[in-house]
Amino acid sequence: METQGRIAVITGGASGIGRGMANAFAAAGMKLVLADLDDDRLAAAEQELTAAGTEVVTTRCDVSKLEEVEALAQTALDRFGKVHVLCNNAGIGLPTPTHNIKLEDWRWMIDVDLWGPIYGVKTFLPLIESHGEGGHLNSTASMAGLVSSPMMAAYNVAKHGVVALMATLERDLRVRKSVVRASVLCPGPINTNISRNSVQYRPSKAKPKADGAAEGKAGSAIQSMLESGMHPDDVGNLVLDAIQRDSFWVLTHPEMMKLVTRQFGPMLDDGTLTRA
Ligand SMILES: NC(=O)c1ccc[n+]([C@@H]2O[C@H](COP(=O)([O-])OP(=O)(O)OC[C@H]3O[C@@H](n4cnc5c(N)ncnc54)[C@H](O)[C@@H]3O)[C@@H](O)[C@H]2O)c1
Questions:
Q1: Nearest-CA neighbor of 236 among 21, 13, 25?
Q2: Model-level pTM greater than 0.90?
Q3: Choosing from 155, 218, 239, 250, which is the catalytic residue?
Q4: What residue ranges line ligand 1, CB within 6 angstroms?
Q5: Annotation marks residue 201 as catalytic
Q6: Which CATH class for the 7-275 domain?
Q7: Span from the CA of 274 to the centroid of ligand 1 (angstroms)
Q8: pLDDT, tens only, 263-276
Q9: What is the DSSP letter of 98?
């Protein structure tokens, strides 16, 4: 897909991977709509991108609310008249052992991490298809959409859902011979502040009582592990490349696919599949 002069909407665009996408798309001549919950980081992103010569509009949007995602689409149309690319990237995640996850935490993570992309696809697909110039929908899942790590049940469920959503969308678009394409980003560790940012948004009722110290420690361990992760700008470039080349899978750490083999290998080893 040609990117020069095209319009991209990025949720969670004020920091981390979303900001990396914004940088990569700006360098490729795209015009941007950045949506996020963090007004200060949105303002900083707008200032920096505008100073670098990119046309950008920023807007507050909670992706877990359909009406706010619809308002985001309207903002993009009012400013630029059309949309070519949507990146459903906003997300949160915190570790808790499955037996301790409160229903408020389940709802929060599924609402943001899964309903957010569902609302995005539902709202933006017709807009992106309507102008006939081609376009692309990308959603940020995770390696947690392919393998199920401990203490991350709600996040894993949401991210598996995002992979399924985008894989199905990609096939449905091809069957309909649509000029629009879809892809899914499954990052491994990326150097962002996701754990710290997620704590800020977590519903107060979801905060753990039992084992809270252990969960806090696990969260800090994840955050320090991410500090040695890939730079978000490199992830943005991978997504840009997928959009330009129409590739579906965007993997930042392909070597981590061995975790998928390790999780599903026993299905093959115990003969279940060869007997079927
Ligand atoms: N950092 C990693 O290692 C990693 C790995 C795999 C997947 N991911 C995924 O990447 C995406 C981006 O995360 P990141 O690591 O850049 O973290 P980040 O915290 O830097 O970025 C996420 C952004 O989403 C925003 N946000 C949170 N809730 C929101 C809501 N309800 N509506 C709108 N915006 C909201 C935050 O304010 C933040 O700016 C997420 O979907 C995350 O699950 C991250």
A1: 21
A2: yes
A3: 155
A4: 11-12, 14-18, 36-38, 41, 61-64, 89-93, 112, 140, 142, 187, 189-190, 192-194, 197, 201, 226, 229
A5: no
A6: alpha beta
A7: 40
A8: 998 887 777 767 76
A9: G
